[in-house]
Amino acid sequence: MANPLQEQLLKAGLASKKQAKKAEHEKRISRKQHNGNPPAPVSNAAREEQAAKDQRNRELNRERAEESRLREQKAQVKQLIETNRLPKDDRGEPYHFAEQNKIKRIFVSEEMADQLSRGQLAIVKLGAGYEVVPAKSARQIASRDQEAVIVFHEKA
Predict the structure, then answer these.
(1) What percent of the chain has pLDDT over 70?
(2) 77 and 145 in contact (C-beta within 8 Å)?
(3) Which end of the chain is more exposed for a tag (fewer CB within 10 A), N or C?
(4) What is the pTM of this model?
């Protein structure tokens, strides 16, 4: 061995021959990889390419986070509607309302129709159907997804 420090460590018993061989092997591998020269500095083109790649990754991550946030809001809206919906009265009177230039109807009791017109209740869209919810829930739903609230005669 040409390294006097390694020889001293071996004689003192602080290192084994196996450890010395492993260190020599790693040193040889390192020299081979760099061909005896230290690694070259990164070129400007490579730096610019890396910066562009990082920018694309940040943009993709931002888009994914936005999509995730929207999914969470839709799930919250669905949960709010399902937990706060009031029972419909199929034998009640029809309550007509407009959605996207089309007249729709939902059957509710007379009391619910009165509360709908006074702004105490609201009609919201859940999937392909409609549900009646209290005004407080309608405000929470509107804060998350304005398009889900179809009819809400809120007092200004």
Answers:
(1) 93
(2) yes
(3) C
(4) 0.60
Q: Which residues, in sequence order, are CB contacts of 9 under 8 Å at separation 6+?
A: 15, 20
> Which own/partner contact pairs does 3-10 have at CB distance under 8 Å and 24+ positions apart?
none
* Alpha helices in the chain, H assignment, sequence order: 4-12, 17-34, 44-84, 110-118, 135-144
CA atoms of 121 and 127, how far apart (whole Å): 19
Helix axis angle, 4-12 relative to 17-34, nearest 10°? 160
Position of tokens 């936005």? 66
**Cβ contacts of 134 within 8 Å, gap of 6 or more:** 84, 86, 120, 121, 122
Which tens digit of pLDDT belongs to each residue from 5-40?
Answer: 778 877 888 788 888 888 888 888 888 877 655 555
Query: Where do the structural domains in the chain lie, given as residue ranges?
Result: 4-34, 81-151
Sign (positive/negative) of CA torsion 53, 59, 63, 66?
A: positive
Q: Taking CA 147 as the corner, what is the angle to CA 145 and CA 152, rounded to the nearest 5 degrees?
A: 100
Query: Which residues are registered as beta bridge partners of 99?
Result: 102
